[in-house]
Write a structure and sequence with these properties.
This protein has 433 residues and is an all-beta fold. It is built from 1 helix and 29 strands. The strands form 7 sheets. Strands 10, 12, 15, 17, 20 and 22 form a 6-stranded antiparallel β-sheet that branches.
């Protein structure tokens, strides 16, 4: 606490409250604080214009909201890479406690992180989400998207069951109209109905019903694999969203996991998981995937795995419905013509991976010197593409897969790094020979 008063929304009140609860103590009551009522905005598919923010902000327990101390902070830098935060004002609209602001367009295929800040004229302040930005942030995906898969599970859309390493002796994935099962104390162990409207089927780990512990996943895992996707023409971000049901009696290491592969299943990267009791109801899950982390190729697949580690007293069940997989559909150039970014940015190169040439699009918030260079996996500089003055706005340059002496470099992952205005931004490029 910074002033000896736990009731005024001290900057560390939430951390103090968490510590109190860990010791079975009631949280200190708040008497004077700032309340921000805000519904986070969803992914923004508009190719032009700003992203609008509206929130209800009010002072509680004395004082008034300072209209000069309300902001939305935003960045498209990853939170774990020392992001540079920019801010825009949140101004009263004249409609009660409502304030509004806008985040400038960040270009196509960008993940935008943001949080709200508001303060009273008596000094108390708050953020939305709480403990932002060091612990939590809101986010949305910017730019138009293309739906790769819209699956209500009512028809066969190319999913396959089974993969090397599966060992489950019961509870194998199947697409059926499930029969509900219920535990007398813990509630449903398998849903009676699918999640969607107007349908009956979903993917479930054996939908025959019976006693609550019958036909659950036993002695290993069962795998569900998506059809193949060709994303070689795309870059930026992708999302996998779905509704999941999960039950685990006497939780141990049993889990429902979802993963992605860009080499037709030769290697997998986990995107998320559900484990523990208290999840036995349909709930929506969504994971984001960046082409900076996993290059988009013509061999993309997704998978779901439900696993039971073999403890006799467990009961592990899962179900999936309304699976939606989407990828950013950024047109050549990505950013809006004539626009100026809020900060120095380098967009994902296109195409990626590439065989001959790849285009690199970058934006400068103001005129200045820009340096763009290519580095190999060992951090050695391969090629300097640019080192010159450029005007504010968006520009492009091209790498032809050659080094400074004009020699063709070998296949591999390279880093495209740019420096401008005191900022350093990097992107990964996959060269295939």
């Amino acid at each position: 606490d910074d002033d000896g008063d736990l009731g005024n929304g001290t900057p560390d009140w939430h951390e103090i409250c968490e510590a109190f609860e860990a010791h079975a103590l009631p949280c200190p009551a708040l008497a004077e604080y700032v309340e921000i009522d805000f519904e986070p905005i969803g992914d923004q598919e508009n190719e032009a214009g700003s992203y609008f923010i509206r929130a209800s902000i009010r002072a509680v327990g004395g004082g008034a909201i300072d209209p000069e101390a309300c902001f939305v902070y935003y960045t498209s830098d990853p939170p774990d890479q020392g992001p540079v935060w920019h801010r825009a004002p949140l101004a009263p609209t004249g409609n009660g406690d409502e304030c509004a602001g806008e985040i400038p367009n960040q270009g196509c295929g960008r993940m935008v992180y943001y949080y709200l800040y508001a303060a009273k004229d008596t000094g108390e302040w708050a953020t939305s989400p709480i403990e932002a930005p060091h612990k939590y942030r809101h986010r949305f995906l910017a730019g138009p998207v293309e739906t790769a898969l819209e699956d209500d599970c009512e028809a066969d859309r190319g999913w396959t069951v089974g993969a090397p390493g599966d060992g489950a002796t019961a509870g194998i994935w199947e697409r059926v109209d499930p029969i509900g099962k219920v535990h007398s104390a813990y509630g449903p162990t398998q849903p009676e109905d699918d999640r969607g409207e107007g349908g009956t089927r979903c993917w479930v780990t054996d939908g025959r019903g019976g006693d609550w512990y019958h036909y659950d996943v036993d002695n290993g895992r069962t795998t569900l694999v998506s059809p193949l996707f060709d994303w070689s023409a795309y870059s930026g971000w992708a999302t996998v969203g779905f509704w999941a049901f999960f039950f685990d009696y006497t939780p141990t290491d049993d889990a429902l996991r979802w993963s992605v592969s860009n080499d037709d299943g030769a290697a997998w990267i986990d995107l998320g998981e559900v484990r523990g009791m208290g999840n036995n109801a349909w709930s929506y899950r969504k994971s984001y995937l960046s082409s900076d982390d996993v290059a988009f190729t013509d061999r993309m697949r997704f998978r779901f795995q439900m696993e039971d580690i073999g403890v006799a007293t467990t009961c592990a069940e899962a179900a999936l419905d309304d699976i939606q997989i989407r990828v950013t559909r950024c047109v050549a150039g990505g950013a809006i013509e004539g626009a100026t970014p809020a900060a120095f940015v380098i967009e994902p190169n296109r195409p990626n991976p590439f065989r001959a040439t790849t285009e690199i699009r970058f934006g400068l918030p103001r005129a200045g010197r820009i340096e763009i260079a290519i580095y190999d996996a060992g951090g050695r500089r391969v090629r300097t593409l640019l080192d010159e003055e450029r005007a504010a706005g968006f520009h492009t340059t091209v790498w032809d897969g050659r080094d400074q002496e004009g020699r063709r470099v070998s296949s591999g992952v390279y880093s495209c790094e740019g420096r401008a205005g005191g900022r350093r931004v990097g992107r990964k490029a996959l060269l295939l020979r």
